[in-house]
Amino acid sequence: MKINYKSNVDLTIGAGGRAMNQLIHDLMLAEFDNDFLSQQSDQAILPAINGRLAFSTDSYVVSPLFFNGGNIGSLAINGTVNDLAVGGATPLYISTGFIIEEGFPLADLQAIVRSMAEAAKIAGVKIVTGDTKVVEKGKGDGIFINTSGIGVLENNWLATKPQPGDKIIINGSIGDHGMAILSKREGLNFVTDIISDCAALHQLIMHLQPYLQHIRVMRDPTRGGVSAVLNEWANFYGCSFNLQENQLLVNENVRSLCEILGLDPLHIANEGKVIMVVNPDHAETILSIMQQHPLGTNSRIIGEVSSLEQVIVSMQTSFGGLRRVDWLSGEQLPRIC
Amino acid sequence: MKYIDEFRNSKVAAKLVEKIKYLADNNRQYNLMEFCGGHTHAIHRYGINQILPGNIKLIHGPGCPVCVLPVPRIDQAIWLASQPNVILCTYADMLRVPGDKQNSLLKGKARGAQVQIVYAVTDALKLAQLNPDKTVVFFAIGFETTTPPTAHAILEANRLNLPNFKVFCNHVLTPVAMAAILDDNQVQIDGFIGPSHVSIIVGSDAYCKVAAKYHKPVVIAGFEPLDVLQSIEYLIGLVNRNEANVVNQYSRAVTNKGNIKAQQITAEVLEIRKQFSWRGLGSIPASGLQIREKYAVYDAEIFFDIPEFESDDVKSCECPQILRGIKEPHNCKLFAKVCTPENPMGACMVSSEGACAAAYQYKTGIN
What is the interface pTM, i.e. ipTM, of the complex? Predict the structure, then answer.
């Protein structure tokens, strides 16, 4: 019997019996399709890997589950791929754990699994092991996904302390993902065409392989946005960053919604951006190489490391003033007047 | 972005600053209060106070609706949210405002209180429609800007016959608060940068009385940085000439009479409260609004037997002085040490429009 995708996930699917086996077989195995997974063991036995390993995990609880530019599935793959990539690693293997709420539409699960498979294919990673649990209605929020990933460092790259004069580069516009999500969030219902930037970044980063040694540090500015990454670095390395507001690229639709809600694009999450601190002597070269890659056409230098004496992130505003760029405090919430 | 970038043009700003420098008398100090938190935010975000001459001091006023709500009202809101079968709807800014002993709606929510963040009062109304078996309480706060929507929601609830919709009304009045600040002898203010959005509703004439009575000029200003600079230019001129006029810089949005329709809706549903307690300013007669008897069925204060709380601010918190412009955030012992946006001790640190939060967010570490 085939799975009826017009029905909903029920507790029998999570019970470990035939229904669960059929779902895993007909949906997950068929879509994720690879030799490791098809062994159907409790673990994936992977071949020996040459080089240092990068290992990362992340849980995805995004709401709404579907948004312009992706869904929780593609996000769960790209997010973990990016966490590996910004460590200089080539992502190889992914594990995935689903926690599904009773009553979740099977059609949505199918769509999510398919987009995970597609994202994995584009990123060149294999989903080699997984787990599915179903919880009673009211004990989850539709679906949560955890992914872990293993990558290999085929180089000697190691993050090093930023130095005064180093340039800050980002591969394009900021705030797209967070605002795409926010605009679809229940209760806001804005009609916008903001598309999430959700994408796997390692191919862009590997494109820079010959220049990796000139990159001091890299990070994907997700939750908390660019300001969170720079503040973390400033505190960890003991240095100051100064941004140039007029060099930041914020798409018009993102900026409009930020203006309406009183939000700062520097605090908004991205899912397809890498921010890096690079040796100033090679900044222009790195920039031009990035701009040749489809994910880096809008790359730009947005600021520099200003000193090692102070720990602060500041910004030269387009208006002519200088202001601090603080961490986001609490959830970034709309102002009321 | 159209109609935004024009008002943030740095070249025009430089010209305005030149004009202000030319006008300002070097032999005196100008104490100008921006009443609204929106202006406070803009001043810090764009670094306006850094580019002004040193003898122009901007005093951050109490125009942040979140900041002026007294602790007992927060405690009452937490109490309401904790009642069985109640959903308390609130604007997001209220969630972290500290009540008694650092309690907050957010902490109440974590303990199981039904707190729902809404972007507009209409969302609360929808919730009341969807949950006829629950009592949906809207935590109404704010100045004249957020008042008409609350009043309109009550009219809508009446039209749709939704007796399960209630309003916990905390709306307050701007011109009365301005007068209360000026009544305080400690406060030295030469003129006001007047509210933007509030003035769209009340109109510029609403400030004539207070301007005349206390002989202080008011320049109604837009929220964009060039609006603020131009208003300062106007104010310096008015102060120099000793004129206590109300001038409307924000003429692209504000009229003399304001939004008559909104005023009518408000007057239909709400009436002046005898007394309302303000954080920082104390109890001020006729400074708040309450629901008229005609619409009492929607009044949470009548429907529930809400207990009175005696709670007060953290003792060493200088919010009361800061809200009146007597002290600045960095004069407070708690500022940026124990009091941060993550752990606000006083209300000025909670909303991004609060004087302390704006100073913390945009200024700390910047010389």
Answer: 0.84
